[in-house]
Amino acid sequence: MQTNKKQHKTTNLDRSTVFKFGLYAVGAILLVQLFLVQIIRHDYYRAEALAEHVKKFEIPAKRGVISLSDGYSATPVVLNEKKFLVYADPKFIQNTEAAAKQLQEVVGGNADDIKNLLTTTSRYVVVAKKIDEAQSKRVEDLKIKGVGLKEISVRSYPQGTVAAHVLGFVNDDGVGQYGFEEYFNKELTGKSGQQKIITDVNGVPLAINNESVQTQPDPGSDVTLSLDIRLQRIVEEQLKAGVDRTQAKRGSAVLIDPNNGEIKAMANYPTFDPSQFASQADLSVFTNTAVSRAWEPGSVMKPLMLATALQEGAVTRNTSYFDPGYKKIADTTVTNAHSYGARTMTIDDIITKSLNTGAVHLMQSLGGGDITEASRQTWYEYLTNHFMFNKTTGIELANEQPGGVIPPQDNGAGINVTYANMAFGQGLTITPIQLAAAYAALVNGGTYYQPTVIEEYKKDGTSVKQEPKVVRSDVVSSEVSAQVKDILRESLEENYKPAIRAGYTLGAKSGTAELSDGQGNYREDAYDGAYVGYIEGKKLEYVMVVRLDEPKTSGFASRQATIVWGDISNEIINSIAIEPKIQ
To answer: How far apart are CA 335 and CA 343, in angstroms?
Structure first.
């Protein structure tokens, strides 16, 4: 019995020893693990812990400044202004009604609307955008838990609405919309930097300092546009006056330097305030008619038809022909706006008297006396590969439209009628910028320059001068260019004497366009008018297009566009130092 008791005691001792040994072993393992965590792998676990509370934030780059030239220096028209955004995390706001009232007194708006924002389940709501620095300090002084401020940059416009359609605007997300801001958005935006910030468990930043910046932002390119602010103001003022006087639906004007393709002025009316874009109800006002609204231009196409016939040798400046006052093409009769009766006409008469029948005669002359597949092909070739219609010009503005020219191989019924109509500007569509560039080539000796609105920009900190881009140097010969230019002078001097100025040569052509009713016919109650031509002093200075859509005054729509063109040209000569011809 004693032996059994002794054995039982020994067994209990063994179990106790094993248990203690197990505790020691577990403790040793924990100590080793603690040693590994705190000493050996301290840096690893610290980095892992920090990663849970480190967030990377984007540092927006400074958007590029946009300026216009005044002939001597650059005038900023788009700058950046520091503003603030008020945001809130509704979870932390204890008294939403009081907070809403306090915020409304500082940022404006409706207290109930703000309260509704503060009672949502969202963890991030925007209470106010674009408040100034004084307001931001007042918000900060409120010390409302859960309400924060974020510095933002917004565009400001020291020259107001000047060149609004060319510039476009920047939306609340910092993205360019319309015009140059949209087209050049990437270059203007620059490249964002990156900031590393340590946050608490709720994601709230604990500290921000210079060491937290990982990558500095690369600012956007500053750009000087080719527009001359003096000319831009003249064009805008006179265009507005013309649209108001005629009650036109809208108006558009383009002023181009024919010697290099630089746009010196581009305007549309009605216009808009780019700083108030969000309040604009009619979004169509943002459309730049000069580049985005193609139309049937009418008789302004006749000088281009004449240049084609002269260049191809189908006629000469001395050519005359018998004009019965009408032209029969298939089952269609083409007549003139004014009746001159049956008589002999000259090549110059086709332009100065604006003869539809004469334009058709030129079209027929390309085919040896009739409209043929060959004459259609020739006219199409000049329209698309000499005057560059049916394609965008490549101007640095968003939403440019190519217009449309029907191919000569179209076997549909009435293709010859279509091409007869195209000879005097119906049945094809173009934009004012295309027309301006084509006329520039027509009168400058035959060189087509790609239109541009850029004079100079900064790239990688270096100023880059925009060089003229020659698209084609043989649009027409210099001889044909000089002949058509002289006929345009005759046209202006015979038809609109108020534009004649001593010491200067001006030439132009008018055009009245019938409007489609959308069902294959033309309306009889509305017309568009256009006038396009050049201004020359000691040297060729400008080519200008003026377009009025549906003016309400009596007479030809083109007459109203002519008046606006003359008002602009006279004001330019009066106000800008254009050196006159040597007398």
So the answer is: 14
- The CATH classification number of 228-277+288-459+468-575 equals 3.40.710.10
For 388, the 3-state DSSP assignment is coil
Cα–Cα separations (whole angstroms), residue 360 to 190, 309, 418, 425, 427: 53, 11, 11, 11, 13
How are beta strands 223-228 and 66-69 bridged, if at all?
Answer: parallel
Rounded CA separation 271/290 (Å): 13
The amino acid sitting at 60 is: P
Amino acid 302 reads: K
Supply the pTM of this predicted model.
0.86
How far, in Å, CA of 510 to CA of 300, rounded? Answer: 6
Instruction: For residue 140, give both structure tokens.
Output: 């900060």
Q: What is the largest CA-CA distance in the chain?
A: 154
Domain ranges of the chain: 57-90+101-159+185-220, 228-277+288-459+468-575
Torsion sign across C-alpha atoms 101, 103, 108, 114: negative
Residue 162 is encoded by which pair of tokens? 């000047």
Residue whose entry in the numeric block shows the structure tokens 């008589």? 343
Peptide bond into 270 cis (omega under 30): yes
What pLDDT tens digit does each residue of the chain (583 aa) get? 444 544 455 555 566 665 666 666 666 676 666 665 566 665 665 555 555 556 666 778 899 999 998 878 899 999 999 999 999 999 889 899 999 999 999 999 999 999 999 999 888 999 998 899 999 999 999 999 989 998 888 999 999 999 999 999 999 889 999 999 999 999 999 988 887 766 555 555 544 445 566 788 889 999 999 999 999 999 999 999 999 999 999 999 999 999 999 999 999 999 999 999 999 999 999 999 999 999 999 999 999 999 999 999 999 999 999 999 999 999 999 999 999 999 999 999 999 999 999 999 999 999 999 999 999 999 999 999 999 999 999 999 999 999 999 999 877 779 999 999 999 999 999 999 999 999 999 999 999 999 999 999 988 778 999 999 999 999 999 999 999 999 999 999 999 999 999 999 999 999 998 887 777 778 877 899 999 999 999 999 999 999 999 999 877 899 999 999 999 999 999 999 899 997 6
Helix, strand, or coil (residue 1):
coil
CA distance 539 to 260: 13
Helix (H, G, I), strand (E, B) or coil at 172: coil
CA-based nearest residue to 305, from 485, 425, 440? 425
Cβ-based neighbour number of residue 132 at 10 Å: 11
**Of 401, 410, 298, 412, the residue nearest 359 (C-alpha):** 298
Torsion of CA 198, 204, 205, 206, to 10 degrees: -80
What is the three-class DSSP state of 499? helix
Q: How far apart are CA 263 and CA 180, in angstroms?
A: 13
d(CA 404, CA 408): 13
What fold, for 57-90+101-159+185-220? Penicillin-binding protein 2a (Domain 2) (3.90.1310)
Token pair of 230 as six digits: 């003096």
φ, ψ at 296 (rounded to 5°): -80, 115
Q: Which residues contact 278 (CB under 8 A, 6 or more apart)?
A: 172
**Residue 238 near residue 561, CB atoms below 8 Å:** no
